[in-house]
Amino acid sequence: MKIICTDYDGTLNHNGIDDVKIAAIAKWRNAGNLFGVVSGRGIKSLLSIIEDKNFEYDFLIANNGAIICDKQQNIIKEFRCKGSLAKPFIEDLFKWGCPFANIDTYQSFMVIEDSSDLDEGEIRLEDVPDIEYFNQINTELDTKEDAAEVVLKIKEKYYGVLVPLQNGECIDITDFNVNKANGIYALLEALGASYDDVIAVGDNINDEAMIAEFRSYAMANGVQMIKDLADEITEGITELIEKEMTSISC
Predict the structure, then answer these.
(1) Which of 46, 31, 22, 87 lies closest to 183 in space, CA to CA?
(2) Among 69, 77, 116, 223, which residue is least crowded by beta carbons within 10 Å?
(3) What pTM value is reported for the model?
(4) DSSP bridge pairs for 78
(5) 172: exposed, middle or buried (C-beta count within 10 Å: 0-12, 13-18, 19+)?
(6) Spatial distance between the Cα atoms of 58 and 71, rounded to a whole number of angstroms
């Protein structure tokens, strides 16, 4: 048994998810292998995508490894940040030029820095309710360079508590011990599976931990750092599955 752990944006969803890709995933799973998504997106977002795209899966790892779910959508493991950190941390994000912050937890809150004209679903910082915990906070800057500057500030002030994971202009912030590799390790423990079973696939900076840790593919359209770390390069999930199926049958 082999386990494909794929990033979503820019990887599984590179050039869309068509019938050919869906058929390749089904072929992989029908051969006794496992397939799942490892994403910076929250679990609600991933479930909505799967319902829309209608592809099969065996597990979901959301919020960059903070939430691990089985195919019945049961949470296997969850990493949490103290809810009391949310408000002061978002205040810092606003001070550093971030226009919004989305708190992802058992509820989701879109907090807006310029709160003079709020849209539906948006709230002011002072209106954020007290929460027991959050799994991730994410924000977005105008450029990758701006995002990188904010990442450095977060690392300096919140080292050992929170970790920023950059994906282009976006930044996902989780518990300090969270990354996609650790999320996969939690999955392996729950499955009783082996390190050697994993095939990790990604394209961007927040995929670094899993690409470096496991046997891995980088997307040809990915950032150079990820391509340098990966064992192999692929044009997409369909091509990767075809290659791996051939390798298994040989």
Answers:
(1) 46
(2) 116
(3) 0.91
(4) 67
(5) buried
(6) 5
